[in-house]
Design goal:
The chain is of the alpha/beta class and about 300 residues long. It has helices at about 20-40, 40-55, 70-85, 115-120, 140-150, 165-170, 190-210, 225-240, 245-255, 260-265, 270-280, 285-290; strands at about 60-65, 90-95, 130-135, 155-160, 175, 215, 220.
């Protein structure tokens, strides 16, 4: 008998013996259950976001590691941090068991490669944060990375879909996303993967908020490196600074594409002064703008 929820067969429906409409409904029910599992873990996810933000403030690394489908979820989250929130790519490291697949094939045996995982874990230094994922909570690769990283002084955030599993026991911040048995037994790219992706989205987005990279719901630290994002950044500067688009565009050019700096420049300060103001307020734009308002006598 399989004890792990992620390996059990869902008793809700035999997916290959029902109509297409019934099958689609069952799949969607599984996805909704995955999101519900994330909601139950919201407090732990926020704690993980705070740990990540603290590491970034201190100039430490965020290290993502996982195997298989969990590795793909980690890869997607990690690769978006730089563009969305302006996190330096030098502080983000991504490790998938067997490497990132370039040909659409992920060999299964790589999740048992403890030696490769230990090498990754030894590269995690004191103050760094390891974000490690395993649907089962027992994947050898994930466990070995976590054990070595923790022994090296790193802080471990672990996401798993089975409760009371070894990976969660190792973690400094354990995040249990207790999804129900999969509609296709053991296919953790389904509900388990959805829960992991949603949890990572929440955690890294809350990190961005805590770092001051979101202001009034806008990504004010976006890296504007294509036409669409330059237009978005210009619009952000125009809206927040309450200036015309041409003025916002000029300010963005003076600030070399940095929206936070550009907003302050558009409000009438020099680029150098804008940098000093941001430093004084730890990169949070709200108090920076407040400091520019005339003081009432």
């Amino acid at each position: 008998m399989l004890s792990q929820t992620t390996e059990r067969l869902s008793g809700a429906v035999t997916i290959d013996a029902v109509s297409a409409a019934h099958a689609m409904s069952a799949f969607l029910d599984g996805q909704q259950a995955a999101i519900a599992a994330v909601r139950h873990a919201a407090g732990d996810i926020d704690q993980g976001a705070e740990v990540m933000a603290s590491a970034v403030r201190s100039g430490r690394a965020l290290v993502y590691a996982a195997a298989g489908s969990s590795g793909l979820m980690a890869l997607a989250d990690a690769c978006e941090l730089s563009g969305t929130f302006g996190i330096s790519p030098k502080s983000i490291r991504i490790y998938m068991a067997g490497g990132v697949p370039a040909d659409g094939y992920m060999p299964g045996d790589t999740e048992d490669d403890v030696e490769a995982a230990q090498a990754v874990g030894r590269g995690v230094k004191r103050g760094d944060v390891l974000i490690v994922l395993s649907a089962s909570g027992t994947t050898p690769y994930a466990l070995a990375v976590a054990e070595c990283a923790k022994a090296n002084g790193g802080t471990v955030i672990a996401l798993a879909n089975n409760p009371k599993t070894p990976l969660l026991d190792i973690a400094d911040v354990p995040i249990c996303l207790e999804t129900p048995p999969e509609v296709i037994a053991g296919s953790t790219r389904l509900s388990a993967g959805t829960a992991q992706k949603a949890a990572l989205n929440l955690m890294s987005s809350m990190m961005g908020v805590k770092l001051g990279h979101v202001y009034q719901g806008m990504m004010v630290n976006v890296v504007a490196d294509n036409a669409k994002l330059i237009a978005r950044a210009t619009g952000i500067v125009s809206r927040v600074a309450d200036v015309s688009m041409p003025v916002a565009e000029t300010a963005l050019q003076k600030a070399k594409g940095n929206p936070k700096l550009a907003i302050l420049v558009a409000k009438g300060v020099t680029v150098e002064a804008a940098g000093d103001i941001l430093d004084a307020h730890s990169g949070h734009l709200g108090p920076c703008l407040q400091s520019l308002k005339p003081k009432q006598s």
